[in-house]
Amino acid sequence: MLVLNGCYFPLKFDVEIEVNRQGYYKITFDGYVVYLPLYQGLKEGKINPTEEAKKVEYVKTDITRDSSTKEFGYVQKGRFKVHWVKEGDITRQKMVTFMRRNAAFLTIQYSKKRYQIEVLGTALSSAQKGRLREIGLDMVGEIRVKTDAKVVSHNATQKGTATKFYVWKINGMNKPSPKMVLSLI
């Protein structure tokens, strides 16, 4: 379903995305992320407390170098609490990802040719899902998109009635990756 890359995995999260028809967006991620090398090393007993502290510092440096990271903390066993907020104009930036392009969990991208914005979750292969399950990981969370733009397509699990509010309830890796296409014309 969703993965940050080979090293990071969103474990439990709440994501809110706002995108208006002028292209202004705001993404808020509040949740827990696992650093897979640390998690697996600790689980297998291959990492001692000194190595754990070094890896925690590495992850802290890696995640907090992005000014959109508003809160960061180490919980335990390779798990980190992250509060991340980013906003801007997608028609100027063309693409924004949480966390980074090489570690994408969620992507918002703009196509000037089609005047469309796509909101996408990154899909996991069956092999990736299997490896994550083998080490005892799965994900749970909710992704909400609020928009006043024309919705061309979506695969949300719920849709608000009074407003354009779309919800993806994630209860495991077997759920389809979120996908939404918005038109600015």
Describe what this molecule looks like in 3D.
The chain has four helices and twelve strands; from the N terminus they run ββααββαβββαβββββ. The chain is of the alpha+beta class and 185 residues long.
Order of helices and strands: EEHHEEHEEEHEEEEE
Overall geometry comes to globular
- Uncertain runs are 1-5
β-sheet strand percentage: over 45%
Number of helices: 4
Summarize, please.
This protein has helices at residues 36-43, 49-64, 90-93, 126-134, and strands at 8-19, 24-35, 69-76, 79-89, 95-100, 103-111, 116-121, 140-147, 150-154, 158-159, 165-171, 179-183. It is α+β, with helices and mostly antiparallel strands.
Secondary structure layout plus pairing:
Layout: E1 8-19, E2 24-35, H1 36-43, H2 49-64, E3 69-76, E4 79-89, H3 90-93, E5 95-100, E6 103-111, E7 116-121, H4 126-134, E8 140-147, E9 150-154, E10 158-159, E11 165-171, E12 179-183
Parallel strand pairs: 1-8
Antiparallel strand pairs: 1-2, 2-4, 3-4, 5-6, 6-7, 7-12, 8-11, 9-12, 10-11
